[in-house]
């Protein structure tokens, strides 16, 4: 597989040979693709249920993360595990079960919904920390960027909980 070469400051750049992804890197990229979809799907559901703008904004961010991981899958010529963009549909059945559990729990109250967001982001951060074991700098950069965003999302949810608690 070759990365696309393009014009550089001194003329055309020769294609750079990409080292194929390891089995573990493939596993993490395909899992992260669906995990980002799960987060997006749950947040869209919760935004619809509670009309709470934090969910809408973070769902939009998760869509970008989902797209970025999709780009990495294409770059490394890895089959995309996402066969349907329908909410709650995942190749990994554990994620399908999680979607059902998280949307049920998030439907109980706005506080429960925000706590679901906290839980998703903490799990995402833990998974990204493990995925960062890769030696590929491009994947490290992507995962670090996703982790930075997840910390920001976590802060938003935790702040929302503080505001909600102060109103009671």
Tell me the fraction of residues in β-strands, as a range: under 5%
Can you list the strand order of the major beta sheet? 1-4
Global outline: globular
The count of helical stretches stands at 5
The percentage helix is: over 70%
Using only CA atoms, what is the Rg? 18 Å
Question: Ends: how far apart?
Answer: 57 Å
Classify the secondary structure makeup into a structural class: mainly alpha
Q: Can you tell me the residue ranges where pLDDT is under 50 for at least 5 consecutive residues?
A: none
Q: SSE order in H/E notation?
A: EEEEHHHHH
Largest sheet: 2 strands, antiparallel
Mean pLDDT: 92
DSSP strand tally: 4
Report on the architecture of this protein:
- 70% of the residues lie in helices and 5% in strands.
- It has 168 residues and is mostly helical.
- Strand 2 (7-8) and strand 3 (11-12) form a beta hairpin.
- The chain is globular, with a radius of gyration of 18 Å.
Relevant terms:
single chain, 168 residues, mainly alpha, two-stranded antiparallel sheet, 5 helices, 5% strand
List strands and helices in order, with pairings.
Blueprint: E1 2-3, E2 7-8, E3 11-12, E4 16-17, H1 23-50, H2 53-75, H3 93-106, H4 110-131, H5 137-167
Antiparallel strand pairs: 1-4, 2-3
Write a brief structural summary.
This protein is mainly alpha-helical and 168 residues long. It has helices at residues 23-50, 53-75, 93-106, 110-131, 137-167; strands at 2-3, 7-8, 11-12, 16-17.
